[in-house]
Write a structure and sequence with these properties.
This protein is mainly beta and 288 residues long. The protein is built from three helices and 21 strands. The chain has a nine-stranded antiparallel beta sheet with strand order 1-9-10-11-12-21-17-16-15. The longest helix is centred in the C-terminal third of the chain and has 13 residues. The two termini are 22 Å apart.
């Protein structure tokens, strides 16, 4: 099914798995410009109904569930909040962009294909995006969210994507796919096949990375070789969040007409998973 929207307010989409709603996709969220408006998934839940996302929390109001957020696209902020400026630190700037829904190429209960424009200065499309999202049941207590985004430079001039890390703030290479999890009384556990704890897994690439909270586990995996080369951005104590870094140590150039593609598959499971179970489910999810 193809559905095109013509500038009208649009109701959220509900994605279902095994006959149960597991995610809502907000297409045109009513958020202020300072939050860098963009489509996002929230709430996302386990099959048992446990919420595993958070929207606009007090600690970071610009964290909007699950989506793609980038703090520096040719100097424009598509992350929200303050912009890191070398020598000044986090600074309030009037440089926020917007990801604007253009059309659905496919829209089904278990996924969609969407075209978006990344708009700067009110009208200029810096990037065009093709976003593909699908949900798949893995077993009775786990399902997978398959999230692919392709960013194309439509202009005849080169541009690049940066992060606070590439702009002078060590350890802050956020920007790309990002998942804000719920903040609970205790910080979540986080681990990979080789490490455990934020300091052991942050800013490092890994085939998969798990975050486990109260009654839920998320297992993130890059599903392409290029995505797996991107290190993970991980926070647990300050707030619970996981992202895949597009610009960890250097800016990511996108030449005229070129496209950068990333695919992240996330296992959403009830309960606490150990390493063996996490690895088994993520292999099944990526294969699916």
């Amino acid at each position: 099914m193809t559905r095109t929207l013509h500038g009208l307010a649009t109701a959220p989409l509900t994605l279902s798995c095994a006959g149960r709603p597991v995610a809502r996709y907000e297409i045109r969220p009513d958020v202020g410009r300072r939050l860098s408006p963009r489509p996002f998934l929230h709430p996302v839940t386990t099959l048992a109904g446990t919420p595993v996302t958070e929207f606009a929390p007090a600690d970071h109001p610009h964290h909007l569930g699950v989506g793609v957020a980038v703090p520096d696209v040719a100097g424009r902020n598509f992350w929200g909040g303050r912009t890191y400026v070398e020598g000044r630190g986090p600074t309030e700037l009037d440089n926020h962009g917007e990801q604007r829904h253009r059309a659905f190429k496919l829209c089904d209960p278990d996924g969609f294909v969407e075209d978006l424009d990344w708009i700067a200065d009110g009208c200029v499309p810096l990037l065009r995006e093709r976003r593909t999202v699908a949900v798949t049941q893995l077993c009775d207590d786990a399902w997978a969210l398959d999230f692919t985004f392709s960013l194309t430079n439509p202009s005849d001039a080169a541009l690049s994507i940066g992060s606070p890390a590439t702009n002078g703030r060590p350890g802050a290479a956020y920007g790309g796919f990002f998942w804000r999890a719920p903040k609970e009384a205790a910080a979540p556990a986080v681990f990979t096949a080789d490490g455990e704890g934020e300091s052991a897994v942050h800013a490092r690439p890994a085939d998969w990375l798990a975050m486990a909270g109260d009654g839920w586990t998320l297992v993130f995996a890059g599903a392409t070789a290029e995505t797996r080369r991107d290190p993970w951005f991980v926070r647990t104590d300050e707030y619970p969040g996981v992202g895949s870094s597009l610009a960890a140590t250097a800016r990511l150039p996108i030449g005229p007409g070129d496209t950068a593609v990333r695919r992240v598959v996330t296992v959403v499971a009830d309960g606490a998973l150990d390493r063996k179970r996490a690895a088994t489910l993520v292999r099944k999810a990526v294969a699916a």
